[in-house]
Amino acid sequence: MRAFNFSAGPAILPEEVLKEAAAELVDYKGTGMSIMEMSHRGKEYSAVHDECVANIKELLNIPEGYSVLFMTGGASSQFALIPMNLLGEGQTADYTNSGAWAKKAIQEAQMLGTVNVAADCGKEIPTRVPTTDELNLTDGAAYLHITSNETISGAQWKEFPEHDCLIADMSSDILSRPLDVSKFGLIYAGAQKNLGPAGITLVIIKDELAEKCPETVPTIMRYKTHIESNSLYNTVPTFPVYMLCLVTRWLKAKGGLEGIEKINEDKAAKLYAAIDESDFYKGTAVPEFRSNMNITWRLPTEELEAEFIAEAAKANLKTLKGHRSVGGIRASIYNAFPAAGVDALISFMKEFEAKHG
Ligand code: PMP
C-alpha cells in the first residue's frame, strides 16, 4: 500500500510515473538495457533529454533566448554559482531574506561579493515573505534574488517584483502554477520536491546573462558551458532526467500548469479551512502569504504535536513532522500529492481534536 507521504523532500512522486519507470527499468524499449545503463550521448537517452527540455519549455511557455539546464549540486550549489557568474566586480546584489533558505543564499553570496539585504522579514524564522513595495533596492544591482516559496515556514510569494534581473529559488514550488518566465533572469530548483528524484537541479536562464561570467570561473561552474553543451558537458544524471521527463508528461496530461494550479489550490484551501475552523490548530504562516505547497501549523503543546505525528503515521499519514529548526506540523502537498491524502488528513485532524481538544 502506498503511504500518504507528506515529506518536504525528497518527496512523493506520481504513482503512475513510478509504475511506468518500474515497467521499463530493466529493459528500456526493447534495448535489453536500463535507461541508466546507456550512454548519455546515445540515441535513446538523447530523445529523453530533448523531450524533457521541450516539455519544460512548453509547460512554462518559455520564450526564445532562454535555456533549460540540468545541473548538479542541488539548489545549494546555485547559491554559490549565481554570484560567481553574475555578480560583477564592484557591483552589488540585492537579496530578500524570507527565511532559512534565503539566508543560506545570502551567506554564500556574501563570501563572493557585496550583498544588500533589500528586505528582511525580521525574526529568526520568518513566517512571511516580503511584499514588492517594501523592497529597498540598489540602483544598478547585478540582480535581485528571492526565494519563491520558503519550504520550512510555509510562506510563498504570490506576486513577483519587477526587476531587470530577477532571480528566484523555486525549489519548492516550481511547476506548481503558471509563471511568466520573461520576468526572470534565472530560475532554479532542486528536483526532489516537485520535479523528480534528487540528483539534478533545473536551471532556466536568460542566455545573455551567461555572457557576464568572469574568465576566472572554472569551466564546469559557468552557465555558458552548460548552455553551449545542452547540459551534456559532463555526464548528466541520466536517470533523474528520465524521471523528470515522465513527470513533465504526467503534468501535461493534468492540463499543464493551469490544471495543476487549480488542483493545488483546492488541496491547500481545504487544509487551511480545516486549520482555521478549529481553535485547536493554529496556522504558522501569515495568511496572505500562505504556501500552497508546504502547510505549517501548531497544536497547543509540543507533547500533543508529537502524539499527533505518531498517531497520524499509524493512520498511513506519514512524515508530518515540521522542520527540526521550527517544530510543529508540516504537510508538504506538492503536485504529486493526491487530494485523497488531504481528505484523509482532515478527517484525522477532526478525530484527533475531538479526542484531545
Ligand atoms: N532552497 C529551498 C527553497 C529548499 O527547500 C531547499 C531544500 N529543502 C534548498 C534550497 C536546498 O536544496 P538542495 O538540497 O537541493 O541543495
Shape descriptor: globular
Q: Could you give the count of β-strands? A: 14
Strand content: 15-25%
Distance between the termini: 31 Å
* CATH fold field value of the largest domain: Aspartate Aminotransferase, domain 2
Describe, in short, the structure shown.
This protein is an alpha/beta fold and 357 residues long.
Structure, explained:
The chain has 357 residues and is of the alpha/beta class. It folds into 2 domains: 16-253, Type I PLP-dependent aspartate aminotransferase-like (Major domain) (Aspartate Aminotransferase, domain 2, 3-Layer(aba) Sandwich), CATH 3.40.640.10; 257-356, Aspartate Aminotransferase, domain 1. 36% of the residues lie in helices and 16% in strands. The protein contains 9 helices and 14 strands. The chain has helices spanning 15-23, 43-60, 74-86, 100-112, 223-228, 238-253, 256-276, 302-314, 339-356, and strands at residues 4-5, 66-71, 92-97, 114-120, 144-147, 149-150, 155-156, 166-169, 186-190, 201-206, 282-283, 294-298, 317-318, 329-332. It is globular and about 65 Å long. It starts with a strand and ends with a helix. The mean pLDDT is 97. Bound molecules: 4'-deoxy-4'-aminopyridoxal-5'-phosphate (PMP). 4'-deoxy-4'-aminopyridoxal-5'-phosphate binds next to helix 3.
Write the layout of secondary structure elements.
Layout: E1 4-5, H1 15-23, H2 43-60, E2 66-71, H3 74-86, E3 92-97, H4 100-112, E4 114-120, E5 144-147, E6 149-150, E7 155-156, E8 166-169, E9 186-190, E10 201-206, H5 223-228, H6 238-253, H7 256-276, E11 282-283, E12 294-298, H8 302-314, E13 317-318, E14 329-332, H9 339-356
Parallel strand pairs: 1-13, 3-4, 3-5, 5-8, 8-9
Antiparallel strand pairs: 2-10, 6-7, 9-10, 11-12, 12-14
The structure holds 4'-deoxy-4'-aminopyridoxal-5'-phosphate (PMP).
